[in-house]
Amino acid sequence: MINNILITSVGRRVSLVRNFQEALKRFNPKAKVYTTDLKPHLSAACQISDGFLAVPRVNDKTYMNILKSYCLEKNISIVVPTIDTELHLLAKAKEEFWEVGIFIAVSSLNVCETFYLKSTTERFFVEYGFDTPRSIDNISYCDYPIFAKLNNSSCSVGAKIVYTLEEAMVLRYDKNYVFQEFIRGDEFTIDVFIDTKNEVIAIVPRQRLEVRAGEVSKALTVKDQKIIDEIKRLCACLEGAYGCITIQLFKSKDRIVFIEINPRFGGGYPLSYHAGANFADYLIRDFMGEILSFEDGWRDKTLMLRYDAEVIVDGFSL
Questions:
Q1: For the chain, how are helix, strand and coil distributed in percent, rounded to 5?
Q2: Out of 44, 112, 155, 260, which could bridge 87 as a Cys pair, Cβ 3.0 to 4.6 Å?
Q3: Domain identity same for 246 and 270
Q4: Are residues 229 and 285 located together in one domain of the fold?
Q5: pLDDT on residue 155
Q6: Structural domain that includes position 152
């Protein structure tokens, strides 16, 4: 039996909330999807959820107790995190929550910590023999352009192509910047679902056609067998991974180059869902103990073109 679901730090993820609402009703018609956010009254996704809670920042010492109390109050069965900064915190609390019947759908602490930083992510790829952009330690002796990004950022915050040594030297004053080889090729984000038995249930490559503010705005599902086979090889090394994992890579004529791994739902996941890969359904069925098997029936060449929409709230007051 499954009761309610809580999606944390939900922000603008309206499609994700609706996906879970639709999936959950098939298993329990009375179940609800709740959400949390720093400012829920200004969160579109909170407004269309079945209820919400205002929470402090994830690094606040009261955050975890507030979250746990709300889960108990609302009879939450599954907690679904959505932002990088809370993954390792929830991974640490996973056992504590499970003791009172609340399942946090998050990967192991080791997985969350490894892929939180760009430096440890690169180390993982190198250790397991996957092609990844080489690090550049000496910006005075390298071929330009190069790529610069913040070691602990998400949504491409701070990421940029650097064309000259002068630009690189300005960025170097921020010790959090790391420099890498600049890779040319088609950019892909791959949505992967991994169940509690560490089995891969779905792999959906999405070619990123256009990005706005760090999040994909135009994308296309592509059944590229070379990418799918390489993702299977990678996932065999991801001990402790669970749920939705998003993997970013570049593909050129002769290379598949891994960039990063985010062990959470990505902003472009709605494309995978509309193409036929229902990760919310997989998660609920896995929680209920169903045996899942690999599913590749999602539709190839499904195009997503995002646009701005509105959530209107009547009688609102600050």
A1: 30, 25, 45
A2: 112
A3: yes
A4: yes
A5: 58
A6: 134-181
Examine residue 314 and state whether it is found in any structural domain, yes or no.
no
Number of domains in the chain: 3
CATH number, domain with residue 249: 3.30.470.20
| Whether the Cβ atoms of residue 262 and residue 107 lie closer than 8 Å to each other | no
Query: 125 lies in a domain?
Result: no
Amino acid letter for position 98: W
What pLDDT does 157 receive?
A: 65
Residue 226 within a domain: yes
Whether residue 235 contacts residue 169, with contact meaning beta carbons closer than 8 Å, is answered with: no
Q: What is the pLDDT of residues 94-152, one digit of tens each?
A: 999 999 999 999 999 999 999 998 889 999 999 999 999 888 888 888 888 888 888 77
Please identify which residue in the block is written with the tokens 């402790």: 240
Residues 84, 59 share a domain: yes
Please give the Cα distance from 123 to 207 (Å, whole number).
25
Are residues 58 and 73 both part of a single domain?
A: yes
Lookup: tokens for 86: 């809370």
Which pLDDT score is estimated for 167?
Answer: 84
DSSP string for residues in 251-312: E-SS-EEEEEEESS--TTHHHHHHTT--HHHHHHHHHTTPPP-----SPTT-EEE-------
Q: Residues of the chain whose pLDDT is less than 50?
A: none
